[in-house]
């Protein structure tokens, strides 16, 4: 059974509705296939290739879940605080 995107990728949904946007595909500026950005720039870059679009979106969802947790804590969104100041502006690359 196919899941709705919001259920299949909850962290991507949170990201694009409250924090920033994602880019999918290749461009002249990055070698990654999928990227997550906010007003400050790139916060996560995926691998150069994936076996499927689903795999790329799952990787982004997992990474953004960790990034959101690290920078905003559990259950917090950017709009929950008066000033948006993520603790870590480095690009998140899971180990």
Structural summary, described in words:
Strand 2 and strand 3 (41-45) form a beta hairpin. Helix 2 crosses helix 3. The model is unreliable at 81-89 (pLDDT under 50). This protein has a three-stranded antiparallel β-sheet. It is 36% helix and 15% strand. The radius of gyration is 13 Å and the shape is globular. It has 95 residues and is an alpha+beta fold.
Would you spell out the secondary-structure blueprint of this structure?
Layout: H1 5-8, H2 10-19, E1 21-24, E2 34-38, E3 41-45, H3 53-72
Antiparallel strand pairs: 1-2, 2-3
Helix pairs in contact: 2-3
List its traits.
single chain, 95 residues, alpha+beta, 3 helices, 36% helix
End-to-end separation in angstroms reads: 31 Å
Using only C-alpha atoms, the radius of gyration works out to 13 Å
SS-derived structural category: alpha+beta
Q: What is the overall number of helices?
A: 3
**Strand order, biggest sheet?**
1-2-3
**Helix-strand string:** HHEEEH
Q: Would you identify the regions where 5 or more consecutive residues have pLDDT less than 50? A: 81-89
Beta-strand content = 5-15%
Provide the helix percentage.
Answer: 25-40%
The whole-number mean of residue pLDDT values reads 83
Task: Sum up the overall morphology in one term.
Answer: globular
What summary fits the major beta sheet?
A: 3 strands, antiparallel
Number-wise, the strands total 3
Number of domains: 1
């Amino acid at each position: 059974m196919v899941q709705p995107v919001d259920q299949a990728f909850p962290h991507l949904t949170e990201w694009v509705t409250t924090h920033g946007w994602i880019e999918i595909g290749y461009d002249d500026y990055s070698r990654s296939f999928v990227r997550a950005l906010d007003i400050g720039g790139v916060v996560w870059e995926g691998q150069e290739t994936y076996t499927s679009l689903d795999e790329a979106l799952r990787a982004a969802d997992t990474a953004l879940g960790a990034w959101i947790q690290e920078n905003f804590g559990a259950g917090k969104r950017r709009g929950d605080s008066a000033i948006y100041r993520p603790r870590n502006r480095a690009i998140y690359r899971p180990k």
